[in-house]
Every structure is written in structure tokens, then in C-alpha cells.
Design goal:
mainly alpha; 32 helices; 2 strands; transmembrane helix; membrane; transmembrane transporter activity; transmembrane; cell inner membrane
Amino acid sequence: MKDILSLLIQTGSKRRLSSGLAKIIQAFGAIIALTVIYTTTVVYVDLFGMTVVFLSSILVLLFIMYSAGPWGRSDMPGPTDWVLSLASAAVGIYFFVESSRIVERITLLYPLEMPDLIAGSILLFLTIEATRRTVGFGLTSVVAAFVVYNLFGHDLPFGLGFREVGFNHFLDIMMFTSDGLFGVPLRVAATYAFLFVLFGTFLSRAGGADFFYNLASALAGRRVGGPAKIAIISSGLYGTMSGSPTSDVVTTGSITIPIMKRLGYSSSLAGSVEVAASTGGSLLPPVMGSAAFIMAEYTGIEYRDIAIAGIVPALLYYLCVYAQVHLRSQKMGLGGLGEDEVPKVKDAMSNGGLFILPLVVLSGALIMGFSPTYVAAFATIGVVAVAAVKPSTRMGLKAIWEALGETTVRMVSVVAACAAAGLVIGGISMTGLGGKFADLVFLLAGNTTFLVLVVSAILAIILGMGMPTPSAFILAAVLVGPTLASLDFSPLQSNMFILYFAVLSAMTPPVAVAAFAAAAIADAKPLGIAVGAVKLAITAFIVPFAFMYGDGLLLEGSISHIAISCVGAAIGVILLSAAVEGFFIEALNAAARVALFIAGLLFISPGAVPLITGSIIVLLTIFVTPHLRQRVKAMVTSRA
């Protein structure tokens, strides 16, 4: 019994396969990548059949790459792993062969045949086991809970019950329609998300990641708090492509955290800076991680519009982190890197400046209205073309083949999470839980819009704890989305609000998966890192409320409305940063900090009255604080 319980709650570990098996996996992954590229950009294929083949292929890899738990072999799959891998292939072949019949049949009207029931049941088990091995107990328990709720929750009291759903009915919806396992999350993983990860992998392999780090170092390395500012810039640029705060922390944090510690930053602060910077990458256009693609597919909003709307809120996020790091470094007397440790901008641009071009191609293709699939394809071609200019960055056939395989390997855990999210969505739709959840939110918050937003934000964070960003968003969108849809907000506002808090769950205590990743590198307590990251990114918890009440921050409305909203919010972010750090030109007393915090909130709030009120509070604060008044007066006089 103890062993069974341990099996249920343990997460598998990624194996370090023997060289021979690793090469086979790499080759199989490259073939999968080429197939995805071909079926998404060259030829039209049935989406259901393509998704089936994609999922089964990934599951074949997954059970070879990930052990069942810490007790499993770390270099070679065991008999059980081979059985699960072969079962994944067999189920995939069955679904693909029967795909025409499955697509054409009328759901629930024509009963499933015995082979359907067997294949569907096996695929359900494989998906749950794949989720447990790669993502962990958090998402697995959510999926299991929804399966149990769907099958046995019809007699629950307090309005949670529903019409009884039999196992055949459940399996029919979940496995043989596009409303369950093969729904939006998995389709996105097999198309947009895969190709953007491909772009990020090629860019990194060609040397683009090194260029962005060197450029960040050249721009900010010599300044006050230089190492932390390098982390902010480089992690943000890498994070927008990786779409995973945890992955970003592990990749860039292994470089930036030790440097920060060496120059006087505490272990906890170094980890906090990296976590805050990495988490924001999933909110930073033009890529914004795979969650933005899911939002586009789920809501019908053009991805281009989502990326444009996300520009200002993301810049405000990084302005807050950057300003706090600057003020904290000033307060602590922390300088920048030595002259010999920082490359010159000219050298950084000369060695890798061409890597800016693929990002220009990506952004230009989005603005021109190309689909995300072709945007990612154009950008990847741009990377290969740019890399070919110099022998040191040129990608030969071997490098391209390895990048293709690496892309598929990177997608394995993402696909498992998206498949699990599809099961949750199907369960919610089948039982009408979304509407019941909305009733619960209104019961807790009443009819007060602000309280409804607060409760929705808290629920989105809770639902996303311990989950990958795509799963966190889709779960929150399905459960919290109906609540916001019933209010007077646009779909863009509502889903951007949900996206922000789903992403922030990666660094919000007590789970804070990104903080746990940073803790291993920084040698600090995860909770301390998480609390510090939330403090550095405090604006991210405030700005979504601002763009819900005024869409100027989403670049909607007249030019004057947008300009006033953006400038006011930028000033408000700086005031909030000063209030949180207790430092602005010099140390601030408690009263000044409270006043500036209130003024910052008012500046971020939409409307002329809050802006005027905030300005008055700032002027009064400067006037009644003698030392601050003298320093401001001296600064104005010197510049005059």
C-alpha cells in the first residue's frame, strides 16, 4: 500500500540515457519536428489525425525519457516503460487508422465499439501517467479529481450535482471529440507552440542567447546594480521565447545568480531577481510563451492583437523590477561589473547584432497579419539565414538535425501538461462546472466588480500553483472566465487579466515552482526567494486591475487616452517602486512611503481625477519632507 501511494505522489525524473539510445531518441524527435513543420506549413491534413499522431509520438518518447519515480533507472527504461511506450504507439496507430470514422460519427448517438472503449481507456491512463511523470502531483491530482467528479459527482449537494454521466459517455466526449483530450491546448502544442519553441531552440543553438546576454551586459553591466540588470534584460528576452518561468530560471539563472552573489547580492535577493525577471518573460511580446497561443485559439482573438495589447503591461512589469533593483542597489551601495568583465556595445553588436533581424521578421510578420504558424516558420528561417553569415555561427545539417530533435525533447513535458488540460476542460464542459464556479465567485464577492476581480485573481493564482503556464491559463480561463464574461469587460481584457495571474502563480508563495528552481542555484530558501520576487514584481499584481477599468494600457482607444494612461502608469510604477524599497534619492520615512504608494496607485488608475490627486500627493510629500525637498530642489537647480 505504501509503495502504491508513493507511486501516485512521486514525480518521475528525466533520464540520462546511454549514448546509443539518446541518439535514437534525438533522431525520432527530429522526425517528429519535421513532420510538424510539414503538416503545419506545407500541406493540409486532418487536424484530428495529426493531433493523434503527434500525441502518441510524444508519449512514446516520454515513457522512455522519464522514469516512473526516483527509484527507476536513470540510464535505461525498464520493462514497464517499454510496455507503456509500445502501448502509446499502438493506441496512436489505432486512432489514426480509425480517424475518418471517428470524425464522421455522431457523438453519443452511435455507441462506441469495444475496441474504441479499450483504446480510449488505455489512452486516458497513459495521459494521466504521463502527466504524473513530467508535471507532478499537482496537475495530476486536479485531473484525477475531475475524472472522479465527472463519473461520481452527479449526486453532490449544494448545486454541484449534474445529470449522471456513464463511463462510455465520459470516454466518448473525452477521447473521441475535440472537446476533451484533443481539444485546444493539445492542438496549440502541436502547431503554434511547437514552432515557436523551434524558433527559440534554433536561435539559442546559433548563438542568439549568448548575444542577448552580451548585449544586456554591455548596456547595463557597468551601471549601479549591473549584474541584476543583466539578469532582468537577458531573462526577459529569453523568457519570451521559452514560455516557461522555471526553464528560464534554470537556463539564465545558472549564469546570472552566481555573478550577483559574487558582487554582494544576498543569495535570496539574487534568486528573487532572477525569478521575477524570468516569470515576466511569459508576458513579454512578441512570443509571450505558449499560453498566449492558447488564448488566441480559445477566445478567437487574433494573436497579433494579443501581442500588441501585451506590450505596455509587460514593459511596466519590467520597469518595476528594473526600478526596484536600481533603487535597492543604490541603497546597498552595490556597483556594476568591472570594465574587463563587460563587453562593449560595439563588440556585442558586431559579434551577434544580426540576431536582432529574426525578431524583426517575427514582429513584422505578426503585424502584417500572418498566422502564428507562418510567423514562427519565417522567424526560424531568418535565424538559419542570419547564422549562415558567419562561420562561427553557421548551422550545418548536423546542427539543424540536432536542433530539430532538441525542440521535440523540450516539448515533451509541455505536451503532457496540455493533454491533461484538455481532460480538465472536457470535464468542466461536460458538467457545467464553469457556470457553478461563477456562481461561487459572486457568492463570495457579491455584486461588487472590484471584489469579483480580486476573488477571480486569487482563484487564478491558486488554480495555477505548481502547473506549467499553459495549463494554469486554460484551467483559470475555463473556471474563472465565465465570471468575468458576465461583467462589462471585453474578452481581451478578461483573458489578459486571467493570463497575468496564471503566469504570476509561478512565483507566488507557497508553491512558487520558479522559486524552487532558483533556490537550488542560489542556495537559499524558496519561500524567501518567492516573497522577494513578488515584492520586485508588485506592479504585475496591480496593472491588470488598471487595464480592466481602462483599456488604454492595452493600446485601445484614442491616441490621447492611450498616451495619458501609459505615461501616468509609468510614473505610478516608479512611485510604487520607491515606496516598496523605501528609497528615492535618499531613504524615505514611513509616512513618505505610504504617501508615494497611494500616489503610485492613483497614477496607474485610469482617469483624470486619480491622476490629479496623485500629483497633489507627490507634491505635498516632497514639500513636507525636508531632506527630500532639498535634494529635489538641488537637482532642479543643477539641471537648470
